[in-house]
Amino acid sequence: xxxxxxDAAGPDQIRAELTEWVQQHWSPDIALRDWREQLxxxxxxxxxxxxxxxxxxxxxxxxxxxxxxxxxLGAVGVPVGSGTWLxxxxxxxxxxxxxxxxxxxxxxxxxQTWCQxxxxxxxxxxxxxxxxxxxxxxxxWVVNGQKVWNTSAHHADMxxxxxxxxxxxxxxxGITYFALPMHQPGVEVRQLRQMNFxxxxxxxxxxxxxxxxxxxxxxVGQGWKAALTTLAYERRFSALRRPSYSPAPGRALAEARxxxxxxxxxxxxxxxxxxxxxxxxxxxxxxxxxGDPLVRQAIARLITMQRASEWTAERARAARAAGARPGAxxxxxxxAASNIARESAKVHSMIAAAGALITGPGSPxxxxxxxxxxxxxxxxxxxxxxxxxxNIVAEKMLGLPPEIRVDRDVPFSQVRRRG
Length: 419
Ligand SMILES: Cc1cc2nc3c(=O)[nH]c(=O)nc-3n(C[C@H](O)[C@H](O)[C@H](O)COP(=O)(O)OP(=O)(O)OC[C@H]3O[C@@H](n4cnc5c(N)ncnc54)[C@H](O)[C@@H]3O)c2cc1C
What we know:
By secondary structure, this protein is of the alpha+beta class. The protein has helices at residues 11-25, 32-42, 61-72, 82-94, 97-109, 223-236, 251-266, 270-273, 280-286, 293-321, 329-352, 368-379, 386-397, and strands at 114-117, 133-137, 140-148, 158-164, 175-181, 187-192, 201-212. It is built from 13 helices and seven strands. Strand 2 (133-137) and strand 3 (140-148) form a beta hairpin. The site of flavin-adenine dinucleotide has 18 residues, from strand 1 and helix 13.
């Protein structure tokens, strides 16, 4: 199918064309998957993508415009989650045409959900030091190893997996990026319980797990390049937003709300992880300390940091809209998010004093403050720690000398490793 919109189309033209199309095709009674099939066919799924893969070849800014317009029109867009946000752009950038044809549509219709199997007990910040191995055996790769901290692995259909396929070359060169089917006997997922009482992460044990030979994203041994794409998108999407679907009745909307409920159940503590700066004023008022000069200064400082970070994010968004790929500016945003989360936890503690530690009835903000204190440390670890972001900013943006890496240029088999 060919689509009318071109590179020259401006926001008003796109809005008008989308509105007309939605009026012709949207029905509240349609099944969610059928609706998304239509979005894909019409190229409205990810409008900045090429026409062959469910887009219209529009500029990057059209994606956000179309997603928010669909919601405003009372309809539904593509699903939320790491399939859409991480796996799909990585497959589009590095996958073969056959993989793009086979894997992208089920992600965008919501038929298949994905998780990220990157971190290992001995390889987190030093992800390129991973030691899960994959060996080609006939028509499939056989995988052995252990992954950890894998969000949502307990209900994912597919995984973005990085594994070592060549131990005789330096560490970044012997890694391959795979699409791993999760539902098979060689994949065992165990949930981990966190100190904030949630269980969003898993350990994943891979024992003779099988991957079809062609499920390699990028070239064999070139997986590091594809992994960097995923990580860059991960920094960009560190703030997860739930789409505000219309509360109107209808099958597609009900299915979309249920899908989002299911997805965001895992992330229910993520707003607390970000420190809840949006609640500090309400918290200070309810605690009767909004007039305290020290509390007021602390709140003003926090809100200033938050606004400055929002504007920096806006600038980065504008750069992406103009065609730039997510790059080191994502590290600045991620560092700012950590600083804001920590500062916000401090301000909430200042307001609640010892009460900040209490959960249950009568506790400050109904236990939210305690959950903030227990969740904020995760903000500066997930998706690359603060120290790693600082290294990226120092090396990639400021041009400072790189840190000393003694294991970079020797065969990985000769590198001394943990575990
Ligand atoms: C909320 C959350 C969600 C996550 N989701 C996923 C997921 O879905 N999939 C997945 O694969 N992983 C996931 N992770 C794991 C995450 O990517 C790792 O925890 C992270 O990369 C850090 O690795 P590590 O825990 O092994 O710490 P380590 O790498 O062992 O680091 C320990 C400490 O040493 C510091 N450090 C390490 N190297 C350097 C250096 N070169 N210079 C300076 N300081 C350094 C670190 O900053 C840190 O303070 C998640 C983690 C969290 C908290």
